[in-house]
Amino acid sequence: MARYWRTQGPVALITLTNPPVNALSAAVRRAVTDVLCRALADDEVKAVVLCGENGQFSGGADIREFATPLSGPALVSLVHDIEASEKPMVAAIEGVALGGGLELALGCHYRIAHAKARLGLPEVTLGLIPGAGGTQRLPRLIGMPSALEIITTGRHVSAQEALKLGIVDQITDDNTVETAVKFALSVIGRPLSSRRLSERAVVCPVDVVGVLEAGMARVKRRACGASAPVACVQALTAAATLPYSRGLEKEEHLITTLMDSSQARSMQYCFMAQRIAGKWSLPSGARWSNSKPTAVHRVGVVGLGTMGRGITVSLVRAGISVVAVETDKKQMDMGKQAVLGMLERDAQRRGDTGTRGHPSTHLLTFTLSMQQLGNVDLVIEAVFEDMPLKKRVFTELCRVCKPDALLCTNTSALDVDELSAVTHRRPLVVGMHFFAPANVMKLLEVVCGPHSSPEAVATAMTLGKRMGKIGVVVGNCPGFVGNRMLMLYLDQAHFLLEEGATPEEVDQALEEFGFAMGIFKVSDLSGLDVGWRIRKASGLIGPNVDPKAPSRRRQGNRYSPLPDLLCEQGRLGQKSGRGWYLYDTPGSKEPRPDPAMRRFLQEYRSRYGITPRHIHAHEVIERCTYALANEGFRILEEGVAAGPEDIDVVYVFGYSWPKHRGGPMFHAAQVGLDRVLQRLEHYHQLHPDTPHLQPSPLLRRLVKEGSPPVHQWREHVRHMHSHL
Fold it and tell me: Are residues 442 and 586 both part of a single domain?
């Protein structure tokens, strides 16, 4: 777990050994403590270099130990022992130094980093704060404003930025350990008092109180109810206003409180769910992860609308050559300008200002001819969401692409199997559903049709990972996982308006629950006409629907016409300056309550004899979130997703479900499945024409079996499928 040997005379080398990222487990902490004592007691050792095995310094704490009582030496004590050493301690940072790994390095007197290393204190993303002195040492090293930003966001810092900030003393492109050993030899005998961060004063601006107050206000706006970012500011405030020892006591108190919180459990579940979701196939199919992906060097993107532009940028960022095709010259020119603009802004953010544009623009080819797709390995179709149009594109792709090229569709809801039927290569057709904006959003739903080969799915997942996406394999059904569930969430929000709520009341309840934006604000942002077109295409609006019914029925089921009526009035959201809210100008992003909307809802209810009632915030949350979870159980029953983790990853990373709530399935487990079942039965009794409020058989089965923890649901689902 830690090796110790002498190298180059008076310098001892201590190597962390716990692959893959040298997590600081109890065994590692114990081993490091032991070998450190040996090094410090050895009179021939004059300096120590601390490094990690296999090109990684340390990824931090072992998250699996969070749920168990602390064993072995505490990391905070180990860091203090390193800092207190009378022999120079030098950290040789390769790969990553994250969380406890960076705190360990901050205990060293000097830090040398490889040019490709990444550093950070990401504990806030796990519902925690740095707990081994990070909130007290970092502001003493780089100043309060920079420490505040890094700790409250949890972002990773490049080696170059770390050097500018003063986190590291030197960066190198050469062998980091050898460089650190040479550096250690050069500092033997130098005084170490000024290098011990706990003995320094915090570097504060004159108006540090104002900086911290502004930071707290900013964090609270962004946190949406999450406790950890607020606790980060509280710990940093202690660093600025208290002696080091008392600041450390405050840090310990805060992390102890957070460690036992439901929010921390939820966020740590999200962390593990990402890894679980990436390893599983559908219950009904082969494991894609056991299949060898096809090598992808050159990708075609068909369509340079909003989605196509974002996909193209993501591919180029990953170093992949792209042939971008548009059939309209004006649209191609607009798309090209937008793509190059996004890449140029990327370059500016990264400091690549020597030449205009992004250094990878040589990877881009823009064309009006599909013929130029003849040598690509994979094509991503990103044209308008229209099945006949997509079929024409796929027919043409079959004609121009090489026989083994994969054909992927970016459809958000259409039948991938129906689309593949127009090709002669159905095993090579999969869905790659990106989320807008595709150059920003992390989620990728990889849709496995009944004919999609495991190799094709593996290739799409591997490509998504290269693009920095979080991939989830899902089955082929209308809306797949995310949008299928979203429709029911929207339905409940619309029904609540019919029954007496306002858009502001519904959104406020959802935002207090933790969503960054309520559902009606999101709808205005996306554009109400998008869903309107889909409903028209699906037949929800048409001759089979009674347009005069207060809640239109289709096959006896409740359906609200409210969003359709708004679209008929030209209220399309932000783009038109009016939607569920009012905007100062078309395109403005600041929503204001619209008195005309209140009159519209009052007239609607009056016309159809609906007596409005007061709707409490808890009913908004229950009906919206339990409807989501209930449909998630149905998705598991049908084998469209392999487990609850897949569904939760889709909602956290694709639909901004609050991380500190874990995802709709985890949230249902936290509330208690028996409680969710009882409330769904209650609401379904009140609204029998709303079938998605009828509890799913899987939910009933899990309650009957004693409400097992969420990580056991996969086995229950497999068992259920095996008996069908």
Answer: no
Q: Which amino acid is at 545?
A: V
pTM (two decimals)? 0.89
Tokens representing residue 65 in the block: 């130990």
pLDDT for residue 355: 47
- Active site amino acids: 103, 123
Q: Which residue has the tokens 């309209």?
A: 328
Which pLDDT score is estimated for 390?
95
CA atoms of 532 and 220, how far apart (whole Å) = 35
What is the Rg, in whole angstroms, of the alpha carbon atoms belonging to the chain? 28
Distance CA 384, CA 379 (A): 16
Indicate the helix (H) or strand (E) that contains 81: helix 75-84
> Which 3 state secondary structure label does DSSP give 686?
helix
The pLDDT of residue 287 is: 61
- The CA distance from 383 to 409, in Å, is 9
- Residues 170-187: pLDDT tens digits? 999 999 999 999 999 999
Report the CATH number that the domain containing residue 626 is assigned in CATH: 1.10.1040.10
Phi, psi of 50 (to 5 degrees): -105, 125
pLDDT tier at 556, thresholds 50, 70, 90: low
The pair of three-digit structure tokens given for residue 509, joined into one six-digit string: 């309840």
Q: Are 298 and 377 in contact (CB under 8 A)?
A: yes
CATH number of the domain that residue 15 is part of: 3.90.226.10
Residue 474: which of 431, 515, 423 has the closest Cα? 431
What single-letter DSSP state applies at residue 409?
E
The sign of the dihedral angle between the CA atoms of 617, 619, 622, 627 is: negative
